[in-house]
């Protein structure tokens, strides 16, 4: 366990579940505090309540598809959490669909999410620069931004995640002089609530087992698999790493079964 987040505050966009929540747990276990940004509701409230048992945790409620909500979240982050020096953009959803079946709403939903993360990141970075302590950002990209998978056609999703990879490179360059590092992880199939909406509940276990065979390591990922990589990229252990897209994918980019 990394033990050098004492006194550090992390903002996790999409932190109410999955790898975002697991990352917040890991940072708090190492002495940090956490701000979870997510849709208002029991899931967000329960996540913050659970985290609060081990340290300071806050919520910023926002529907990331609602531009007014995003503006309000920016205001809240700027006013209440300008001291955050760690940021993870983990919000996402995945709805495989053939290219010709995409409607405008399908396309816009992915890119609205990128828009929200772009401007929330801008707000947090302004606080980092004003604080003068540098910082670290990790974006959750995707293996699907690198290659297409026949079983899961996802052109709009892949396009949006590729944009997040490009943002990672651009911000790494622009913010290096401020002591702010920017990296990304690119997971393959990871068992998070994201897949709960892809497969019916009674088919989820079988689908995960079948998809596990796609990966040379023989299984799908877990939230902790991704959180471990994210925490490394946030920590001083990766102090000379910026602009990297780290494949945390069970070996899929090396070759597929």
In round numbers, the mean pLDDT is 94
Q: Output the number of helix runs.
A: 7
Number of strands: 7
For the record, give the distance between the C-alpha atoms at the N and C termini, rounded to a whole number: 32 Å
Helix content: 40-55%
Which structural category fits the helices and strands? alpha/beta
The low-pLDDT segments are none
Proportion of residues in extended strands: 5-15%
What is the overall silhouette? globular
Order of helices and strands: EHEHEHEHEHEHHE
Q: Biggest β-sheet, characterized? A: 7 strands, parallel
Radius of gyration: 17 Å
Describe this protein's structure:
It is a single chain. With 257 residues, the chain is α/β, with parallel strands linked by helices. It is 42% helix and 15% strand. It is built from seven helices and seven strands, in the order E-H-E-H-E-H-E-H-E-H-E-H-H-E. Strands 3-2-1-4-5-6-7 form a seven-stranded parallel beta sheet, with helices on both faces. Strand 4, helix 4 and strand 5 form a beta-alpha-beta unit. The longest helix is centred in the middle third of the chain and has 28 residues. The two termini are 32 Å apart. The mean pLDDT is 94.
């Amino acid at each position: 366990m990394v033990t050098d987040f004492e006194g550090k505050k992390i903002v996790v966009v999409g932190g109410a579940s999955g790898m975002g929540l697991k990352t917040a747990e890991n940072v708090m276990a190492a002495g940090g505090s956490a701000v979870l940004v997510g849709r208002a509701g029991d899931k967000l409230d329960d996540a913050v309540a659970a985290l609060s048992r081990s340290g300071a945790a806050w919520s910023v409620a926002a529907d990331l598809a609602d531009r007014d909500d995003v503006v309000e979240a920016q205001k809240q982050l700027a006013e209440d959490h300008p001291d955050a020096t760690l940021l993870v953009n983990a919000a996402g959803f995945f709805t495989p669909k053939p290219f010709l079946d995409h409607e405008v709403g399908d396309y816009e939903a992915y890119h609205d999410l990128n828009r929200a993360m772009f401007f929330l990141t801008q707000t947090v970075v302004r606080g980092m620069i004003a604080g003068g302590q540098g910082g670290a950002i990790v974006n959750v990209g995707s293996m699907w931004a690198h290659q297409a998978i026949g079983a899961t056609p996802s052109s709009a999703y892949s396009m949006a995640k590729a944009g997040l990879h490009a943002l990672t490179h651009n911000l790494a360059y622009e913010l290096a002089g401020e002591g702010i590092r920017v990296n990304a992880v690119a997971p393959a199939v990871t068992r998070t609530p994201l897949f709960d909406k892809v497969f019916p509940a009674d088919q989820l276990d079988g689908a995960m087992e079948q998809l596990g065979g796609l990966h040379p390591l023989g299984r799908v990922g877990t939230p902790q698999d991704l959180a471990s990589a994210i925490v490394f990229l946030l920590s001083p252990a990766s102090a000379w790493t910026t602009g990297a897209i780290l494949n945390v994918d069970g070996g899929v980019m090396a070759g597929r079964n």
